[in-house]
Write a structure and sequence with these properties.
Elements (H helix, E strand, L loop, with lengths): L1 H11 L8 E5 L9 H10 L4 E5 L6 H4 L1 H5 L1
Parallel strand pairs: 1-2
Length: about 70
């Protein structure tokens, strides 16, 4: 069941024990991670935070490599 697998994967985010940065592109540029989803990941991963990379869509590391590595 695909839905059950997704729930299981989302639940596993709570087991991450290191600081995490959830990166997303700008939604209007075709980002696959919507602001609401990024915020949900942030809530599920203890100690994490969310940041958007302006001028990037789905391939953050290719579209804005300098910002991605900063």
């Amino acid at each position: 069941n695909l839905a059950a697998g997704r729930v299981e994967r989302l639940a596993s985010l709570a087991t991450i024990a290191t600081p995490a940065l959830v990166l997303r592109g700008e939604p209007e540029l075709g980002s696959m991670t919507a602001p609401a989803d990024a915020g949900r990941f942030d809530l599920l991963i203890p100690g994490s935070r969310v940041a958007a990379i302006p001028g990037a869509g789905h391939n953050l590391h290719r579209e804005q490599p300098e910002r991605f590595l900063a």
